[in-house]
Amino acid sequence: MSPLRLRDRDAIISKEGIIFRVFGYSHPSNAYICDIEYAPAEIFKSNNPKAPRNNGNHVFYKFYEDEGWKFIQENFSQYLILHEILQKKVTGVNLRDIQQVKKPETELQKLIETEPKDELIEATRNVLEFTTTHSGLPIERFGVFGSMLHGFHHPKLSDIDLIIYGGENTTTLCETLHELYGDKSSPLRNEFETDKTIRGKRWRFQNLTPKEFLWHQHRKLIYALFHDEKSSRVIKTEFEPVKDWKEIQNEYDPNTRIVQKGWVKMLARITIDNEASFIPSIYGIKPTEVLDGAKEANEAKRIVSYMEEFRMQSQEDETVYVEGNLEEVKTNKRRFYQIALTHCPKYYQQVLKVKSNT
Question: Mind listing the domains of the chain with CATH numbers?
C-alpha cells in the first residue's frame, strides 16, 4: 500500500467549507476516514451556545455528539464512504473531494514565527517555550489542533490544544510534566488535581464513577492548566499524542472482515501498552475472567478503543475491567478476537478501568 500523506488530527476542508479531522492511521487507498468538526453558517447552524466560531470573515459551527453524522447523512452523502472491513458506511472524504489540507505542525510553525495577534497565541507560545526548555524537545515535534488550527479561536475563552508527535517524545513530555506539576513555581498544573473540571456536569458513564474518572485522568499527565501571567487567566492546555511518521502503518485491508460477537464484561491483564496514548488506543491483553458474554472472549488478544476517555487508561501488568463489543477479526492470514470501545448505542455503558486501584 502507498504511504499515508495524512495522519490523525490533520484537517481536510471540502469545497463547501466543511472541516473534517482525519481519524486514526488506517484508511482506504482512495479516501480518508474522518470525524466532522465544523461547518460554515451558510450550510449549518446549531442551537448549542458552545458551537459558534468566528474567524473575522466567516462564522462556523462546531458539531457535538451525533450532530455531524446526521448532518452528513441528510445533506452530503458523498462524505459517507464504505468501510469495507466493517461493511458499513462511515464519515470520510474521497481524495477527489479534498479542497484543502491543514497540517497541525505546519500551522503551529506559522503561529510562532509571526507576531502574536492576540493573547491566546502569545500564551501558546509561552507554553511551548516553557515546555520545550524543560523537556529538551524541539518545537518541530509539536502541532496545534482545534479552533486555533483554523484561526477562529476566542482569545479570552478558547483552550490551548497542542499535539506531541511520537511515542518516545510523548514519554519524555509526560516525565517533564510530572516534574513541573510538582514544582510550586511552575505555571503548569495537572488539570485533574481537583474535580473542578467535572463538578456540576451531568455524569453519563454507567460503569465509571466520577472518582474513578479523576484518578485515571490525573495520572495521564497530558491534561494541564497553564497560568498565564499576562492575561491573568488559567488556560486549559492539552498535549494530544499523535504517531510519528515512522510509527505509522496503514492496516486497512479491504479483504479483512470484522464480525460482531456480542456484548462482554470481563477482567484482563494488560500485556502491551505502547500504543495506549494514540487514537485508536490499543492494549494487548490476557483475559483472566469472563464475567458475562460469549465464551470466545477468553481468546481476546487486545482492546481497541476509539474513545478519548480511555486513551492512556491502563499500563502494562495492570488488571482492568472492560465492558464492550467483542469482535472477531478475520484476515487472509489469521483470525483473532478483540474488544472494541467505540461510538455505539451503548456508548456510556462501555468502560475500561484499572480494577485494583480504583
Answer: 11-102 (no CATH), 104-246 (no CATH), 257-354 (2.40.50)
